[in-house]
Design goal:
Blueprint lengths: L2 H18 L4 H26 L7 E5 L3 H6 L4 E6 L8 H14 L3 E4 L5 H8 L5 E4 L13 H18 L3
Parallel strand pairs: 1-2, 1-3, 3-4
Length: 166
């Protein structure tokens, strides 16, 4: 979830393909350059879009967003679940509620793959809003624009919730 990492992958893929198929090396390099340019534009777009909410604290469902948060210097202050496949216990939920209040977290983000009632329970009485982030883009059709749609959806949903007036 970091366009800089995606660009590094593109460079590695181009190098491997060019080495394996020297006849098509120019095509791989041209395609790689075009993709790297698209990723750079996406990165700049997201950085600009997320800048107004950069300092607003929020909680995610599970810690799937570190690269995204780091890249755009976002203020994530915790996660509900330690692991996405393990439901948090009562002690963890109480700790998250305390974090929401202490850090004045504006939003708590659910994920469509997991029970929404858990997020509702966590925010009850805290003043935090609930929204959804999908780190795997489950509703996005596969294709050449899927990564770009995923990244824009994450940014759009973060900004929508963090910009909302309580």
């Amino acid at each position: 979830l970091d366009p800089g990492n995606a660009a590094a992958m593109v460079r590695a893929i181009v190098a491997a393909l060019a080495a394996a198929d020297p006849v098509n090396r120019p095509r791989y390099r041209a395609n790689g350059a075009a993709m790297s340019a698209r990723l750079a534009r996406l990165d700049a777009e997201l950085d600009t879009k997320l800048a107004p909410v950069r300092a607003k604290p929020f909680i995610v469902f599970h810690d799937a967003y570190r690269y995204f948060e780091h890249r755009y210097r976002l203020a994530a202050v915790g996660s509900i679940a330690v692991a996405p496949d393990r439901a948090p216990g009562a002690r963890r939920l109480v700790a998250i509620r305390r974090t929401i209040r202490a850090r004045n977290a504006a939003c708590v983000f659910a994920e469509p793959q997991f029970r929404p009632t858990l997020t509702a329970t966590v925010i009850e009485g805290t003043g935090a809003r609930r929204a959804t982030l999908d780190p795997i883009g489950g509703s996005i059709a596969p294709g050449e624009d899927a990564y770009f749609k995923l990244m824009r959806a994450l940014a759009r949903n973060l900004v929508a919730c963090l910009s909302a007036t309580p």
